[in-house]
Design a protein that fits this description.
single chain, about 375 residues, alpha/beta, Rossmann fold, 8-stranded mixed beta sheet, 6-stranded parallel beta sheet, 13 helices, 14 strands, globular, transferase activity, DUF1972
Amino acid sequence: MVAAGQIAVIGTVGVPARYGGFETLAEELVRAAAAAGKAHRLTIWCSRPQTSAPHPDSFLGARLRYLPLKANGPQSIPYDALSLMQAARSGHAAALVLGVSGASALPLIRATTRLRIVTHLDGIEWRRPKWGRLARGVLRGSEALAARWSHEVIADNPEIARHVRDRYGRETLAITYGHEAARSTPPADISDLGLPRGGYALSIARAEPENNLALILRTFAARPPRPPLVVMANWGATAHGRDLRQRYAGHPHLHLLEAEYDPGRLRAIRDGATLYVHGHSAGGTNPTLVEIMGFAIPVAAFDCPFNRATTDNAAAYFDSADSLDALVPVLTDPRLAHGMGAELAAIARRRYRWRDVTQAYFDLLGL
């Protein structure tokens, strides 16, 4: 058993963050709790296969627990469900559940325990093109269970909140992400990457179809070499990514980088960009988009309601190779670039602050 008032964080690969937005959120919660002397009240469930040895039992004072399953893909269903059951059985007071994969366990947990369940729905996962028919059905059912059986539901984007309200008649709590962590570490040396001098367009995404890397790469491969394009992705993790890497790796003004997690190197890579191209078409408020807004550079974002809501309609938007190609010379004009970048940075400072985000979670979870 654990001490009274212990909070479980479920649904991430683990901390420190080395995968995506949920991991960054979990790490920021731990850091804020540590600064307030409360990190000992947090327990983070982690994936042993996806985290680095020697698998420490704590991080900045927060307890870490490991399961021998992956936190994403098909294994995310038993991973999240088992994490929830362990949290309930060990006497945790509340669980912050990041994603809906383990929602099949919620009715039983609600019926047999006092665990308070707060679920962050993430995006509308079952609409992502990468899933087959069976997986989409499972995810759609999991979303419905999460909306029905969670004590509180969090939506990080107004479009997600609208979807939940229209589909399930459920009101959600609005909590977004912060942007400052991307610029909080001094830039590190990245001379080994051989990136272009004088600026480049940058895109950072997982190599999944809904992130439109194929469209972005095709557009820049057909353009004159200015600006060159730097794309950072986990190319080897998916067949889609491996195919894109094989097709475009030798192109003279395309630079395909492997996913990078060192904060200083990430900072330096972002510092060198003069344009950001955001291809995500699914999900809610995407952390990479929020973070780049703080760098005060123009953004070309895929035209979908999630991205328009995140950027408050202050970015430029594309929905095809032709529309992206038309935007690039406009967004590299220094006069427009400065104005758009400044407006996006102001939105980030106003709407996406980690101190507000972490405090909202602490208030909700009773931390």
